[in-house]
Amino acid sequence: MRTQIVIVGSGPSGLLLGQLLAGIGVETVILERSSREHVLGRVRAGVLEQGTVELLEEAGSAARLHAEGLPHSGISLAFDGRLHRIDLSALTDGKHVTVYGQTEVTHDLMDKREAAGLVTVYEASDVALHDFDGDAPFVTYAKDGVSHRIDCDFIAGCDGYHGVSRKSVPERALKTFERQYPFGWLGVLAEVPPADHELVYANHERGFALCSMRSTHRSRYYVQCPQDDRVEAWSDDRFWDELRRRLPEPTAASVTIGPSFEKSIAPLRSFVAEPMRFGRLFLVGDAAHIVPPTGAKGLNLAASDVRYLFAGLRDFYTEKSEAGIEAYSQKALARVWKAVRFSWWMTTMLHRFPDTGDFGQRIQEAELDYLVHSCAASTALAENYVGLPY
Ligand code: FAS
Ligand code: PHB
């Protein structure tokens, strides 16, 4: 079999890239390790930058997003028993974010791909990348016990942190940067109305908490927990109690409790692999970088990479120019590192570290107090949160 581009991974970056390429007549095959149901069963991001929404519009899969997504013009920071709103739109000439779950983004992109009759091989095993350092790369995989080979022009490694693509690059050709955080996030989904009409990021001496949502009747909450904590140790009652202890009283009183239907613990890390291109292989999204979710950047960075790579591939196929694909890694990494910095900064400012102590807690509160009372400081937060220019 032959195609123009093999995309490894049917997450948001793979699906979005495939949809944009289909729009200019470039043929792709997506190889996905898991089942369609398993991919859609993952609960992850919830906040989309305006640039991500515009890309989904360009991919023709933003109709439900516009019908069901929630535009948000602000967020609140909670500390020292008080809530402080950051007016994102006022500070960024009217920009906003849209609250719409990654699961829905993935679902919309899958539906669009299937409606166009484009090929996605689910439950593809033993995916292996070959000869991507030459000009005739190919990918092999097995499906239902039968081995397959796909020859292609390029391979897009959209297979996440644990995928095969980054691991296929010779170690000597890759430089990685990593920071593990000494805690995780326990996340809960419940069919209850959100505690506030916007997101609340709480700094508390017991630990970080986040009030988010998926709709006006479905809430998404997180509390910081020990790195080695287990979901089984957290009954719903214990979760609701701990969440409300970390929130200012009026916000805690607005929390509607109810049975959780999803509960999971995610580790937090910052990770970047450089460069993001190796001959005919491009690393995209979580395959190349991971950020702690505190800055709501993971999914949006994946979209940012897709934007740069799509522009490069479009120039290659329509203008016979290699300038865009040559510049991909350097352009993508410039924006990646700014988002890695912002996510690291939000995480260090809002979480309780083992060595924070009383002095560290006061320093965090002083930084937050300065942030919410300084136009310059809150503008810096706002322009990063809504998404820096591409
Ligand atoms: P993904 O990991 O989403 O997709 C990669 C795909 O490749 C998967 O479907 C996988 O099954 C497949 N794959 C892997 N190995 C393969 C192989 N060998 N062969 C074929 N297919 C293979 N971001 C936020 O902004 N906010 C959040 O709150 C947030 N929470 C998160 C919670 C968790 C537990 C995790 C893991 C991530 C979270 N993220 C969050 C980040 C997340 O949203 C990612 O940024 C986003 O999924 C990136 O999309 P992709 O790059 O497509 O990678
Ligand atoms: C979410 O709704 O899952 C979410 C929102 C904002 C974040 C992280 C997660 O910073």
TrEMBL record:
Its EC number is 1.14.13.2. GO terms for molecular function: 4-hydroxybenzoate 3-monooxygenase activity; FAD binding. SUPFAM superfamilies: FAD-linked reductases, C-terminal domain (SSF54373), FAD/NAD(P)-binding domain (SSF51905). It comes from the Bacteria. The keyword Oxidoreductase applies. Pfam families: FAD_binding_3 (PF01494). InterPro entries: FAD-bd, FAD/NAD-bd_sf, HB_mOase, RIFMO-like. Residues 2-343 form the FAD-binding domain. Keywords: FAD, Flavoprotein, Monooxygenase, Oxidoreductase. PANTHER family: P-HYDROXYBENZOATE HYDROXYLASE, TRK SYSTEM POTASSIUM UPTAKE PROTEIN. NCBIfam families: pbenz_hydroxyl, PRK08243.1. This is 4-hydroxybenzoate 3-monooxygenase. The gene is pobA.
